[in-house]
Design goal:
This protein is α+β, with helices and mostly antiparallel strands. The protein has helices spanning about 30-40, 75-80, 140-145, 205-215, 225-230; strands at about 1-10, 45-50, 55-65, 90-95, 110-115, 130, 150-155, 170-180, 190-195, 245-250. Helix content is about 20%, strand content about 25%. Strands 1, 2, 3, 4, 5, 6, 7, 8, 9 and 10 form a ten-stranded mixed beta sheet that branches. It is globular.
Length: about 270
């Protein structure tokens, strides 16, 4: 039987999602596979919708695995969670057809990037948001972001080590907004960047944030985003934003599979 599950995790203390060579650090995949194996009473291999990097979080990761063990949905959830550390949890489980694949059946993926602007660095939010000491103009950022909507060659926004065969991706939504009730100036404020695309290149979201932040700080003109896109050359683009503010918040699948499409949780932002 093939089982799909939702996974939520704080990536601050993980060496990314994917299992690494022995001795190369703690991973989310490793923790989840070990927990599920104890419930299934056999070794388990899981497949995910998106392999997040070191320090990146998720509230809506989707995975699947196969097992001949008979368990109720809540049995997989509560059983696995009993063996998982505090910074990762299974949120739901359901049987799916053999046609479902967590990665290849996905139609869209959605990320949220959270920036906290304040003159001095935060303490309690460390490794859960990206601190930005500059004040950012979100209207300038949104005007620049609009250049990136649609289908484009995102070579300027992919990591040098990206293994994707094609740099062409389609961004369906890219919006920048401040948190309701957010402070300002010395009190700090939260700025959210919500982005949804058919798929993402390695470091694509973080490289987009790097370009938009420079524009929001008035260090670059609004049209620079379009120019960077047209360069199709990573070395001519901006810096890569840190991983700490990045969250995988949802994965969309065809309705026939009945997979929940989760929205960002109501956190402090």
């Amino acid at each position: 039987m093939r089982i799909a599950l939702g996974v939520e995790y704080d990536g601050a203390n993980f060496n990314g999602w994917q299992v690494q060579a022995q001795g190369q650090g703690r991973t989310v995949q490793g923790c989840v596979e070990q927990a599920l194996a104890k419930v299934a009473n056999h070794d388990v291999r899981v497949f995910c919708a998106g392999r997040t990097d070191t320090g990146v979080h998720a509230t809506g990761q989707t995975i699947h695995f196969e097992s001949d063990a008979v368990r109720k949905d809540r049995g997989w959830v509560h059983g696995a969670n009993a063996h998982l550390p505090d910074d990762v949890v299974i949120t739901w489980a359901k049987p799916v057809s053999d046609e479902f694949h967590a990665r290849f059946s996905a139609q869209r993926r959605r990320y949220r990037y959270v920036i906290y602007t304040r003159r001095v660095r935060p303490t309690f939010l460390s490794k859960r948001v990206t601190w930005e000491y500059r004040m950012l103009d979100i209207e300038r950022m949104q005007a620049a972001a609009n250049h990136l909507l649609g289908e484009h060659d995102f070579s300027s926004f992919r990591a040098y080590g990206c293994q994707a065969k094609s740099p062409v991706r389609t961004i369906h939504e890219l919006t920048i907004h401040k948190s309701i009730g957010s402070g300002s100036g010395e009190n700090g404020e939260f700025i959210m960047l919500d982005i949804e695309a058919n798929a993402f290149l390695h470091h694509m979201v973080r490289n987009i944030v790097g370009v938009l932040a420079a524009i929001g700080a008035d260090e670059k003109p609004v049209d620079w985003a379009r120019e960077v896109l047209e360069y199709r050359e990573r070395k001519l683009a901006g810096v890569t934003a840190p991983p700490h503010g990045l969250y995988l918040v949802g994965v969309e699948y065809p309705e026939v599979f009945g997979i929940p499409y989760l929205s960002p949780p109501q956190m402090v932002w």
